[in-house]
Amino acid sequence: MTASVRDPDATDPGARVDPRRARAATWGVVTVVLGTGAYLLVGPHGPLWLLLLLLAAGYAGFAALVWGGRNEGALSRRAVLVATAVLFLLALANPPIESGDVWSYAMYGRMVSTYHDNPYTHVPSDYPTDPVARRVTRIWKSTPSVYGPVFVATAAPGMRLVGTSALGARLYFQLLALLSVAAAMWLVYRWTGGSALALALVGLNPFVVVSVINGAHNDATVGLLVLAGILLAERGHLRWCAVVLAAAVAIKVAAVLCVIGLAVWLGRQRGWRAAVETALGCLLVTAGLYLLGGGTIAVEPLQHASAQISWGSVWYLARSGITNVSATPGTPAWYASQRAARQLSLIASALAVGLAVLLVFRTRAKSNPAIVVGLAVFAYGLVGAYVLPWYLAWGLIPLALAYRSRSALALLFFAAVLHLGFVPDARAILHNQSSHGLAHSLQSAYIHFVVPTLEVVAVVAALVWTSSEARHRLRARWPRLPAHDAH
Description:
The chain is built from 20 helices and no strands. It is mainly α. The longest helix has 40 residues, at 438-477. It starts with 18 loop residues before the first helix and ends in a 10-residue tail after the last helix. The relative contact order is 0.12.
C-alpha cells in the first residue's frame, strides 16, 4: 500500500483536463529535452552565450510543464519517464560541465584505497605523480576533504575498482548521483500516488539533470537520505529516521539544518519528547560516524572551508569590502584575509540558522514535513556564505512530496536563478583562456548584483511573512493588544 503525503493546502487539481495546460505540458517536456539535452551535448565546446541560451530554454520548458502539469492528467507519466531516461543518459554520456568536484571526490577516495592515507590530513598536491591528482581543480589541490566519513567510505571502494581511469572515476560518481535521484523518484512515485508532476520536478528539472547528475555531486545522495528520513518520520519510524539523517549529515555537515526542520515538525506533530529523542539520536550517530572517520581530525578541514564565500551569496560584496583583494597572483580573492572572511562566514551561518528556525516554526503545523525541511534548506541558500546550486538538492528532492505547494515552486525558482549564474565559460576553461565578451559581462553583473538583490528581497519578504503571522497569533490570544498601525 502506498501513502500519500500531498499538501492538503494545495489547490484542488480537479478532474477535467484543461486542453491549454495539456498542450503546455507537452511542449514543456519537448523543450526541456531539447534545451537541456543540447546544453549537455554542446558542453565544453560551446561559447558562454550559447550555453546560457540553451539552459534558459530548458528552464522555460520546465516552467511550462510545471504550469501545465498542475492540472492533474495534463502531463503524461509515460512521457515524463521516457524524457527523464533520455536526459539521464545524456548526463552520463558527457563529462561534468559546470564543476570539477568529481576529481576531488576521486582523489580523496584514492588516498584511502591506494595510498592508505587519511584524506583529512592529506591533500591532492601531496601526490604530484598521481594522474587523478593532476586533474583536481587548482584551487582545491591544497585542500583536505571537507566531506564526511560516509562519503569517503563510499568513494574509496569505487576508486579501488576503477583505478586511475578518468572515465571510470567520473562515471562512478555520476552513477552514484543518478541512482540516488532515481531512488528518490521511486519513493516520490510511491508516496504521491504516482503523480507525473512530482516525478517531473525531479527527473525533468534541468537543475537536477545538469548540476547534480552530470556534475556527479554527492548532494543527490544527501537529498535522497533527507527524503527517506522525512518518510520514516511521517510513518513513525523515528529511530531509523535518526540513523538515515545522520548519514546525510556525515556526508555534508550543513545538512544538519534538515534535522532541525524535521525536529521542529515532530515537536508539533508528535510532541517534543519525540523531537528531542530523534534529534539527539541523529547527533549521536553522526558523532559516532565522525569518530570512526578520525574524530576531530575529520572536522578540522571544515575550519579551513569556513573562510570561503561563494559568488551569488549576499555576503560576497561584503567580503570584497572587508578583505584584502590584492592577493598574490593566481590566488582567488576570496582566499585573502582568512580571519575576516571566517568572521563574516560565522555571522552568515548564525543568520542562516536563525532564518531557518523562523521559517520552520512558521510552517511547523503543515501535515507534510517536506515543506518544513525544504524551507530550512531555502533559508540556507538565501543567506549562507558558501552556497553552490547543487546544495539546494537537499531540499528540492524532498519537496517533490509537496509538488503542488508554494514552497516547492519557490525553491524551484531559486534553484534556476542560482544555476544560471554558475554556467561556466566552458570553452575558455578548456583552452585555458580568460573569459571575456558581452555574455561574460552580463553574467558577472547577474551573479554579483541581481542574484544577491533577489536574495535580500526574499529574506525581507520572509521576515514580513513570519512577523505578520506572529502578530496575528498574538492578537488572537490577546485581543486587546493594539494593532500594528495604532499610534
